[in-house]
Amino acid sequence: MPAIAIITARGGSKRIPRKNIKPFCGKPILVYSIEAALGSGLFDEVMVSTDDEEIAEVARETGASVPFFRSAATSDDYATTADVLMEVLTRYEERGQSFEMMCCLYPTAPFVTAEKLRRAAQAFAESDAGLLEPVVPFSYPPQRSFSLVDGNLQYNFPQHIRTRSQDLPTWYHDAGQFYFYRVAPFLAAARADAVGGYTLRTMPFVLDEMEVQDIDHLADWELAEMKYRMMVARLSNPEKRGNTSEGDV
Q: Least buried of 25, 162, 219, 222, by fewest C-beta within 10 Å?
């Protein structure tokens, strides 16, 4: 099955300048995603979609392809991931290349490993889903969350004021690391303007909370580095590796 990994790495990060190539535990954070994709052996093509020459240089030096640069339309703050993926697939089609499976891999996902990608790809291949999405449980039930209304706390779900947290069902959120798609269903959904492709049957790939971190601010970055070092230590210790639920489907 012809497969492509598309790493989305534009140059215009606002909250953390030059975020996609900022050093993370000793090397540009983008490098982790490229190395995971290349090391997995899953893909006929590992490419970086960018509008930035410095990012492109890091990508090429690490072994990824940058066959073309993003258009202005997919480089602004309002372009969606689906817009970027559509552009990449269209450009490859114009070059006479097509794929049956793709993995959209974010450039700030150092917790993604080659092994994790292989397990996700195997689970996806054995399913009839059109999309595989890594998710992680909320660390505390959002059913017990508050909003601030005129300076006062207000329950978002007042029906759960007296519900014990352990009695509430587990809710999950997007881990923000990677997504596997079957290309034909994705293109059909994208052309029908289905937001995020969620008209596709979507299967979960459940991750360990200790291997997920949204990185929007410098404090998030420091926390991600701490978690990453802990992950590396755990993976290097066989006795501890069996204690994680990471990657269970």
A: 162
Do residues 47 and 37 make contact, with C-beta atoms less than 8 angstroms apart?
Answer: no
What is d(CA 191, CA 36) in angstroms, rounded to the nearest whole number? Answer: 30
For strand 178-182 and strand 172-174, is the pairing parallel, antiparallel, or unpaired?
A: unpaired
Q: CA 4 to CA 47: how far, in whole Å?
A: 8
Residue with tokens 């959120």: 173
CB 205 within 8 A of CB 246: no
The amino acid at residue 32 is Y
Could you tell me how many residues make up the chain? 249
Rounded Cα–Cα distance for residues 196 and 193 (Å): 9
Per run of 10 residues, the mean pLDDT along the chain (length 249 residues) is 96 89 97 98 98 97 98 90 94 96 98 98 97 96 96 96 94 97 93 73 96 95 97 81 41
Radius of gyration of the chain (CA): 19
How many CA atoms, within 13 angstroms, populate the side-chain half-sphere of residue 197?
Answer: 27
Q: How far is CA 96 from the centre of its chain?
A: 27
